[in-house]
Design brief:
Structural class: alpha/beta
CATH architecture of one domain: Alpha-Beta Horseshoe
Number of strands: 15
Distance between the termini: 30 Å
Shape: globular
Radius of gyration: 24 Å
Strand order of the largest sheet: 1-2-3-4-5-6-7-8-9-10-11-12-13-14-15
Order of helices and strands: HHEEHEHEHEHEHEHEHEHEHEHEHEHEHE
CATH class of one domain: Alpha Beta
Helix content: 25-40%
Length: 400
């Protein structure tokens, strides 16, 4: 018996070393991928272009393809999308982009694109989406974007813009904006955004907006997605959203959301995605109000005050596909509620007080594909049993 345990301990140590190496290699990629929730970045194939491409565009296409960039074309052969993510851009590349008159989507994330370069792109009158995340674009560059009346989606996360620059975009018929981590953005910008009648998606993580500014969104009738992580917004601010019936996705992680805010959220008819991870003002009783949202498909409660009594109120969330309970105060008493969630595909119970018997029972959920049990008391034999009984189930034993 002692020899067997020694072998298992040695194997476990080797696995830890190998996984640590894996995490070192993948950590940066995962961090970049998590910076934004929407819209998702599309991985584009490198397209070859034939005679259908317009002759006017062909020289520009050749320059971009020669540089190894990702291009996508419409059915008529015109270039409709260019992805220059992580590229080093020079004047020749900018000039080539300026010739693509039918370009609809331009991805420039983590590039050295400048305000001056954007001025050269003012002729792209069919451009609908531009991704300028992690660039040094400033308010001066927004003057050029304001002239592109076709724009509906602007991604400026971690750029250098301020409220003055956002004001320049007031006349655009925008549907989606991303100003995450533009840390000087305040309620002044929220008033500009809230006055845009076409707005559907807003991202303002770690900006200076607060409850007073949220009043500007009261008439944003088309709003479907709101992400305001790390902001000082409480129930007082969320109350201004109570008449917005189209909201389907709320990401409020690490914000000041409290029980009053959860009461407002619990009455939103179309919510299917809710993240209140690290919202430390919400009590177990307040979190229980989420049980009034039967349409939820994604729920993250990581590092909240969720406990067994809370889970009893959440048992009827039977449409849930992803549930994150990492580092919450749940135990085996929550098992009956969890077993009611028969549509779960991804379950994170890392750092909880569940026992081996509960893990085995959860492993029988019919649609479950992934279960995170890191930092729990699960036994090696239980992990083996789960793996042997469900080849389609990924059990995550440890994480950094």
């Amino acid at each position: 018996m002692y020899q067997f345990r020694s072998i298992r301990t040695f194997s476990f140590s080797i696995a830890l070393i190998l996984l640590a190496g894996y995490h070192i290699c993948t950590h940066r990629t995962q961090a970049k991928a998590s910076e934004s929730t929407f819209p998702a970045d599309e991985k584009l194939p490198v397209e070859s272009f034939d005679s259908k491409a317009s002759l006017a565009d062909q020289d520009s296409v050749d320059i971009l393809l020669k540089a190894g960039f990702k291009l996508k074309r419409a059915a008529n052969g015109e270039v409709s999308e260019v992805d220059l993510t992580d590229a080093q851009i020079d004047s020749q590349i900018v000039d080539a982009l300026a010739e693509l008159e039918n370009l609809g989507i331009l991805r420039l994330r983590r590039t050295n694109i400048s305000d001056e370069d954007l001025g050269k792109l003012e002729g792209l009158t069919r451009l609908r989406m531009i991704d300028l995340r992690n660039t040094n674009i400033t308010d001066e560059g927004l003057s050029s974007l304001a002239k592109l009346k076709s724009l509906v989606d602007i991604q400026l996360e971690k750029s250098k813009i301020t409220d003055s620059g956002v004001a320049k975009l007031a006349d655009l018929k925008l549907k989606s904006i991303n100003f995450n981590y533009c840390t000087t953005i305040s309620n002044e910008s929220l008033r500009v955004i809230g006055a845009i009648p076409t707005i559907e998606q807003i991202q303002l993580d770690y900006t200076k907006i607060d409850d007073k500014g949220m009043a500007a969104l009261a008439n944003a009738k088309r709003l479907k997605r709101l992400r305001i992580r790390g902001t000082d917004v409480t129930g007082e601010g969320l109350a201004h959203l109570s008449n917005l019936t189209e909201i389907a996705r709320l990401n409020l992680r690490d914000s000041s959301v409290d029980d009053a805010g959860l009461e407002v959220i619990s009455a939103m008819p179309k919510i299917n995605y809710l993240d209140i991870s690290e919202c430390r003002l919400a009590t177990p009783e307040g979190i229980a109000k989420i049980g009034k949202l039967p349409g939820l498909e994604y729920l993250s409660l990581w590092e909240t005050k969720t406990n067994d009594a809370t889970m009893e109120s959440l048992g009827n969330l039977r449409n849930l596909q992803t549930l994150i309970l990492k580092a919450t105060n749940i135990s085996d008493q929550s098992l009956p509620a969890l077993l009611k969630m028969t549509n779960l595909v991804d379950l994170d119970v890392a750092g909880t007080q569940l026992s081996d018997d509960s893990f085995l029972a959860l492993g029988k959920l019919p649609r479950l594909k992934k279960m995170n049990v890191a930092n729990t008391r699960i036994g090696f034999d239980v992990i083996d049993e789960l793996s042997d009984s469900r080849e389609d189930l990924q059990v995550i034993e440890f994480e950094n």
